[in-house]
Amino acid sequence: MRNRVLTTVVCVSSRVYGLLLPLYPSALRNEFGHDMVDVFEQEIRRECEDGNPIRFFRAWSRVASELILSTVTREFLMARIAVPIVSVLATLALFECFLRASALSAHGFK
């Protein structure tokens, strides 16, 4: 009975982890996704065989922490880098339009 429960817990945990992979950054997921699932499955199996449920939950808490940190970091970088870059580019485009309009106006094209 214990082996069947262990197998079920490991199988379900691996499947759930596999479903969570899209939350990781795509470069990491594309290169290491399969290996990440394999390593996680080995870790869960080891923790379950140990018989200490705290270690099983600790492994899942590490996954949750990784996901939160990678998502927050990605969102933080997007807000911190991408938005200002887009803002500067839009400002430059508008400034160029203003300069061209001024040049046309100065040459008598109204």
Question: Percent of residues in beta strands?
Answer: under 5%
Order of helices and strands: HHH
Helix content: over 70%
Q: Total helix count? A: 3
> First CA to last CA: what distance?
87 Å
Report on this model:
The chain is an all-alpha fold and 110 residues long. The protein has one domain. The protein is 89% helix and 0% strand. The chain is built from three helices and no strands. The chain has helices spanning 2-20, 26-50, 53-106. Helix 1 runs antiparallel to helix 2 and helix 2 (26-50) packs antiparallel against helix 3 (53-106). The longest helix is centred in the C-terminal third of the chain and has 54 residues, at 53-106. The mean pLDDT is 80.
Can you summarize this structure?
This protein is mainly α and 110 residues long. It is built from 3 helices and no strands.
Key structural traits:
mainly alpha; 110 residues; 3 helices
Furnish the topology, listing elements before pairings.
Elements lengths: L1 H19 L5 H25 L2 H54 L4
Helix pairs in contact: 1-2, 2-3
